[in-house]
Recover the amino acids of this structure.
């Protein structure tokens, strides 16, 4: 269905109302960090090597204690239902059949239970903490009952980034749609029909909120109840409560990374939330080497934000990452064609990664082995 | 009325005749310094921190000896009446209710006395020196009688910058409006009506000039009477004459800053006049750290020129400033909606600053505490 | 027929269906390396010298053991027939009469034997290795019988680069032309007529493939049979088998260059395949000096990829190259006007090189003598 | 007639046929050096100073042994008659009344004698050497008889730069005008009328050529007779022959500058011929400091190429120049309005220079005093 990554993005753009595409594509404020994520990847150079090729490359690795057919996992994406009906089930199935880890967001459209029931493969659960510890405990318990192999604790959302595109499009809580916004939605009748037939909600939070079936109501209920900043004490509590692997997502600073590791994180996701939180923050590609140096070789570091291709994945490995999370790169596929679209996105990334490994003479998709394939600018 | 800063600028553009918008937006000559001011802010990186959040951020600080609800003050803006009727009263009221210092320009449309009478809150007065010391003395006395807590002495206007946009638009002294200029003005009838009903003048200078009610006449009278370059002797005279805080505005060089401090300035505004004077001058963001190092930690340094958002304010603090002056950033709001527009502009900056402090783990809006939040390029 | 290089490119663009022009012009993936090749040449500076002019410049040199009227040779170009009927004969004749080496591709439209018969001047043969050693041996033997003075072994195509433009245009194996592609081809009736009258194939491979007269069939036959990665053992075998000069093409790394030299390469072509293979690889201009330093002064190094003018040729000499291969720079001429077009392209490059040598005071077109004419950025 | 420099350029563009404007504006080949000249000036930073102002700036200086009201002289421009009838007389008069040196080109439209007769003020003469020493001697003698205070020997034209715009426009020797070129000329009837009434020739060379009244004939006669490269021996001969000041124009390298000084040049013009000769050469702004360091403080160095404003003039002084030559910057005025246009161009540059000196606290327009006003990038 797609022969290069640009196709999936273009297809997503064709399918989605422009405001929804903007919600996916955009970053916070002036989108400086969003652009840096991409520019800093582009500026890295891969070493072309010709004689030390191995007959075949090994893309398999272990991420968050799980086997992965390539060093990539799907990042947690909230409000998935605006991109495709039953988004998370589509994405999780594609991930499962491709053999890469999937992470369900607190703000997913389908609930933990639905995904567990429909997908039949393990998935990770990402937690945005609530002020009310009872809710946190309940969510952890549900994730535990769903046998999630890892909990991904988001720590970069002390306050939500101001996304100018969403503000322009009236995508606020509460919604402020104006006539021009409505008109643009009507231009995508297929999307609209899907929406009306299968109105998404926030499946995990619906049980705690007054009108659980309505996305707007649940969002408005949840908004003021998020805890925001995560403290060291919070992390300790979760480490204590959660029985399996613990991943801390949203770190961009060496001190923070060292603290997370000290408090028991099994893996750390280096992220600026895809340029959607602190505008003006550095790219993850530029910060990773310093963090790797600070934490040493034993801590599992995953690079997130700005990964668009298998070439970027190899660059991340070369900078010291164990693997990558991808957000938009798979959501383009999801919006373009549900499970099949996500599968196509993963297939492309794997092919590109394999090509890049072949042409750089990289045998194994692990951080130590490929670090020489990259030259920093 | 506005949900992100771009809205205020766009609204100002809609309201104002294009020549007036250009007068606001433009810089001198090729606008190289104007662009540098913005680019150098954009290039700075903010440190994303996640675990050392404080429960609440303290934005309050002290500027020029006055309490400020955030480290921002409104810069002196001449000819305010071209942006909104009774501009200074609107802006000063918005500043007062938001709790930030306001500075009235020598070239304000409303006079010191009018502002004092209508606003009922202290404001600073900015002085452009005249050749005639009697006028200087009179202006100081009027500012004193209005209980201005600080005098802001402008020193960067030895000669007025050549602003190509104004020259193109016929905004010269005397005016040289051509038919095409008139046509463009007629496209903004609401602005024109306001102008005709409430013809602005230069309120502070009207008393000394032949036909005080006419902006063109007063400007033409004043133009050749400005002193231009301010000498060390001038500064000493003012320090001696003026009883309260003295601020020197328009310094971009470490030696000049040291001299100003030595001669008794209570605070120094690092400024290139918003890129409207010496084209080719460095950005203030690039010069501030060197000046801070030269003058030491005790001198109050305020960064001016290029500040457009709360993110820029935090970057300025991180470079060593005690706070910022904002020019265009508030005038967009003023032109868009008078007092309410200025209030909206201030509100946005405060929100952005708070968000930026939250996501960088910055507790206090003071120079020393946040210097680690910035990495120079 | 052409007065500056832009003309040839424009003429090629006018003649060719857009998909064919894209096939020529494009690079792999996001074309980052393609752009780097050009940008890094542009950033180099030539030393303007005025008093040490020699009465005449000597452009003659030796490349791959052959005399060359300037330090330039024509790179191997596959599928030449899509640019001009009997492309290789046109190009080889132009090269012969201009006095520069020509290299025939494994994937040429005309076969080794046809070119040998029609051109009557020596040419080099470029080998893409096949998995089946018998085919390799057969090709070497044919090249030997044609008295090719040098074999150019390509080593940078372990896997073929993914060229997004070709994918967009349906130029895949097998072809996937859609109606819109056909329409664009019909806009170039002259090209179409040539195609239909003189349907190109892959002349060298036709004998081994089922329907040798059909380009699509031969390509599909060949595609899975290429060996891809070339190993040190392969190189040793070829060094052993091939009786005359051996050139290794497609090296961008100092270690690889040292190995190639050690295993008996007579010359090494520093290349990233014109930005058509590993996207993200460095430009050849940026890598050459390091490779020169690593291999010492005695190894013949030829720079390939990104050379568009005689100025670029001089820059390459200044960086330490013995000469350059040009790909697109001559194919523009070929597409624009067959043999005459290639001659025009060579003429322009020679003139530019002579001008550049004159204005930099460079007497001889050899690496050692002109190295001071360049300042790296 | 003009209020900022952009106006003069725009007016020139309106008046001239596009091919003639291109001849003025363009550079050689890809115009890389042309763009560098401008970009490198823009990147320089001027030091804003506020307290050390002097009451008035002294712009007067000495250039080539002549008094100059500002550190600027008019560069030699060939074919002036294509820009304005009797171009050199207009330009020389404007220069004389403004008090800056004027330099007549070998290729001027009006002859040495005409200019001497009509202008009544001293001017310099620029020599392009001929192969035939008799012509050189004759030209020197004519310049001597016209009491030219200085001879400017051009040394950067060993071969003429290939100017793609001229090639595109058919401005070659011989002319190759095609219908589309003619159509564009007819769009500027005023220019055409001037041309027909006052057909320009090359006044200085007409006496030696068959049909002296025809520009095309004289050009075609002269073209193959230029000597091109100037050798040290040539320079010695001229130094010996020419009785007054000798200026060498077209040096961009420290060794060349030292040799020129050693052989008796009274002043050296650092130039890349306005980006019209060696494309890929460095900007003059980037090379000047190194040359100044190499030759010491006593050699008079004049920066040429890329100067567009008084700000650029101050930057040049700050880099170590004694003054500047301006080419295009005055020809815009010439094309826009003859003598009045050149006067306007000079007036603007003087005003800008005065403003820039004022705002940088620069008292004197000499290299030593203002070197601190610039910070290199
Ligand atoms: C539409 C969208 C929704 C997201 N929702 C969440 C979320 O619910 N939880 C979370 O931790 N991160 C969320 N993220 C951030 C992603 O997990 C990931 O960090 C980011 O997309 C990575 O950047 P990339 O899109 O450049 O790959 C979201 C990102 C996008 C684009
Ligand atoms: C329209 C306009 C009028 C100004 N008038 C004055 C003035 O009267 N006195 C003064 O000291 N500065 C004046 N300035 C400069 C501002 O005080 C301030 O230094 C500048 O606007 C800061 O740059 P910014 O606009 O990028 O924030 C003016 C600036 C503008 C844009
Ligand atoms: C259309 C096209 C076909 C090519 N075919 C071959 C080929 O068959 N064998 C090969 O070794 N290189 C091939 N190359 C690469 C060229 O030999 C050469 O390395 C490249 O064109 C150099 O870059 P340049 O085009 O920027 O000069 C091809 C390049 C192009 C543009
Ligand atoms: C139209 C034109 C004609 C020129 N003719 C001559 C000439 O006859 N002799 C010469 O020495 N330089 C000539 N030059 C170069 C100028 O003297 C000068 O070096 C150049 O214009 C400086 O660059 P600028 O235009 O950026 O100021 C010419 C330049 C232009 C633009």
């Amino acid at each position: 269905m797609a022969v290069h990554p640009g196709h999936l993005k273009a297809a997503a753009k064709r399918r989605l109302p422009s405001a929804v595409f903007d919600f996916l594509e955009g970053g916070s404020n002036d989108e400086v960090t969003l652009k840096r994520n991409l520019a800093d990847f582009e500026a890295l150079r891969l070493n072309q090597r010709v004689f030390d090729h191995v007959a075949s490359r090994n893309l398999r690795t272990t991420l968050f204690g799980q086997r992965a057919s390539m060093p990539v996992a799907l990042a947690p994406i909230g409000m998935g239902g605006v991109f495709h009906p039953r988004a998370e089930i589509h994405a999780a199935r594609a991930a499962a059949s491709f053999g890469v880890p999937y992470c369900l967001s607190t703000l997913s459209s389908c609930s933990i239970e639905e995904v567990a029931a429909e997908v039949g493969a393990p998935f990770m659960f990402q937690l945005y903490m609530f002020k009310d510890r009872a809710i946190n405990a309940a969510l952890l318990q549900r994730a535990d009952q769903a046998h999630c192999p890892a909990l991904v604790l988001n720590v970069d959302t002390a306050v939500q980034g101001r996304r100018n595109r969403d503000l322009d499009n009236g995508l606020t809580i509460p919604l402020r749609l104006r006539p021009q916004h409505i008109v643009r939605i009507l231009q995508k009748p297929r999307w609209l029909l899907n929406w009306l037939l299968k109105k998404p909600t926030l499946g995990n939070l619906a049980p705690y909120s007054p009108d659980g079936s309505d996305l707007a109501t649940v969002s408005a209920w949840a908004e003021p109840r998020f805890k925001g900043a995560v403290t060291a004490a919070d992390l300790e509590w979760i480490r204590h409560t959660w029985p399996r692997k613990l991943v801390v997502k949203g770190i961009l600073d060496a001190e923070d990374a060292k603290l997370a590791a000290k408090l028991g994180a099994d893996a750390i996701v280096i992220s600026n939330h895809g340029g959607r939180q602190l505008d003006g923050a550095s790219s993850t590609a530029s910060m990773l080497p310093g963090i790797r140096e600070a934490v040493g070789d034993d801590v599992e570091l995953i690079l997130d934000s700005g990964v668009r291709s298998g070439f970027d994945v190899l660059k991340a490995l070369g900078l010291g990452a164990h693997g990558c999370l991808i957000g938009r790169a798979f959501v383009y596929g999801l919006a373009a064609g549900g499970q099949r679209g996500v599968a196509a996105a993963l297939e492309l990334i794997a092919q590109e990664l394999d090509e890049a490994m072949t042409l750089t003479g990289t045998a194994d998709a692990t951080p130590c082995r490929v670090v020489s394939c990259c030259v920093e600018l």
Remarks:
- Residues C 24, 37, 75-78, 105, 107, 126, 154, 249, 271, 273-274, 276, 304-307, 325-329 surround flavin mononucleotide (ligand 3) (CB under 6 Å).
- The two ends of chain A are 36 Å apart (CA to CA).
